């Protein structure tokens, strides 16, 4: 396993067997994300995206208490108290959101414990979410008087629909993993001692598949949820053509005929 050297110990980045593991390592604050952590997230995403050996990215929280609990508010007095500081902080947050939005590789959120507010927002950046049965979900904005940006609200609406989203925001209730599964917030629930193996198995399955086909699916699905006037159908067709003209397509056909496991190269 290869570990990246980062400026903060509160983020960990490791790579092994086609999987990039990004860990929010701030368990004493339930993995609340601070300024230095956001800077490291940008570095990690860029590295994983540019490494052809990384085919799937998994993000998780350290410990067993929380996935992510949102922003590290303890930093605000020092780093987010003046208009200039607020601009710098918010600009960095916007860059992190943009980095998540442009990840071309599958992103899995491995969730245990609390996944509330900004933590849920982080989990919703992922393509797939696997959670333990003792996880808890919710958006407590209405108990704090907070406003949520359109981008964040729309991500939830697209996933669970307008009626469920209204329930989540109007009530500010907490939801069990079973309830989150039933409303479509997460993809799968496992027992705590099964989480590591379940996520590793899922990531390995995706990593073994044809990377260009996986990339094509992510591109087209992403375009399909946009308003029709904003869809880039040329990009969709280009992604399909990329697959059909690839060495991997030839390898897939040959392996099928030879009744063997294909070895995809991502080209």
Q: Which percent bin holds the helix content?
A: 40-55%
Strand order of the largest sheet: 1-2-3-4-6-8-11
Let me know the CATH homologous superfamily of the largest domain: 2-enoyl-CoA Hydratase, Chain A, domain 1
What is the H-and-E element order? EEEHEEHHEEHEEHHHEHEHHHH
Number of strands: 11
Strand share of the residues?
Answer: 15-25%
- As residue ranges, the low-confidence spans are none
Overall mean confidence score, pLDDT:
94
Summing up helix and strand content along with how strands pair, one would put the structural category as alpha/beta
Just name the CATH architecture of the largest domain. Alpha-Beta Complex
- Count of runs of 4 or more consecutive helical residues: 12
By CATH reckoning, the class of the largest domain would read: Alpha Beta
Radius of gyration based on Cα positions: 19 Å
Instruction: Give the overall silhouette.
Output: globular
Largest sheet, in brief, is: 7 strands, mixed
Number of domains: 2
Distance between the termini: 24 Å
Q: What is the CATH third-level topology name of the largest domain? A: 2-enoyl-CoA Hydratase, Chain A, domain 1
Highlighted features:
267 residues; alpha/beta; 2-enoyl-CoA Hydratase, Chain A, domain 1; 2 domains; 7-stranded mixed beta sheet; 4-stranded mixed beta sheet; 11 strands; 48% helix; 17% strand
Topology, element by element:
Blueprint: E1 2-3, E2 11-16, E3 19-24, H1 35-50, E4 56-61, E5 66-68, H2 76-79, H3 83-101, E6 107-111, E7 114-116, H4 118-123, E8 128-132, E9 136-138, H5 141-144, H6 150-160, H7 162-171, E10 174-176, H8 177-183, E11 188-190, H9 195-208, H10 211-224, H11 233-244, H12 247-257
Parallel strand pairs: 3-4, 4-6, 5-7, 6-8, 7-9, 8-11
Antiparallel strand pairs: 1-2, 2-3, 9-10
Helix pairs in contact: 1-3, 6-7, 10-11
């Amino acid at each position: 396993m290869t570990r990246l050297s980062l400026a903060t110990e509160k983020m960990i980045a490791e790579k092994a067997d086609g999987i990039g593991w990004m860990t929010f390592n701030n368990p004493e604050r339930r993995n609340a994300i601070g300024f230095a952590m956001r800077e490291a997230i940008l570095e990690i995403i860029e590295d994983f995206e540019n490494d052809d050996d990384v085919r799937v990215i998994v993000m998780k929280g350290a410990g067993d208490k929380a996935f992510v609990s949102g922003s590290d508010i303890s930093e605000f007095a020092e780093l987010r108290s003046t208009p200039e500081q607020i601009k710098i902080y918010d600009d960095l947050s916007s860059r992190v959101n943009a980095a998540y939005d442009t990840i071309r590789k599958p992103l899995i959120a491995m969730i245990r414990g609390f996944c509330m507010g900004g933590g849920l927002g982080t989990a919703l950046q992922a393509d797939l979410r696997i959670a333990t049965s003792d996880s808890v979900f919710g958006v407590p904005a209405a108990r704090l008087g907070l406003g949520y940006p359109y981008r964040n609200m729309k991500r939830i609406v697209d996933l669970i629909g307008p009626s469920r989203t209204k329930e989540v925001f109007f009530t500010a209730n907490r939801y069990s993993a079973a309830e989150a599964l039933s409303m479509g917030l997460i993809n799968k629930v496992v027992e705590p001692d099964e989480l590591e193996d379940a996520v590793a198995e899922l990531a390995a399955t995706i990593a073994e598949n044809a990377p260009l086909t996986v990339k094509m699916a992510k591109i087209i699905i992403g375009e399909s949820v946009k308003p029709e006037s904003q869809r880039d159908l040329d990009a969709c067709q280009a992604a399909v053509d990329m697959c059909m003209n690839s060495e991997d397509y030839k390898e897939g056909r040959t392996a099928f005929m030879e009744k063997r496991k294909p070895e995809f190269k991502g080209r």
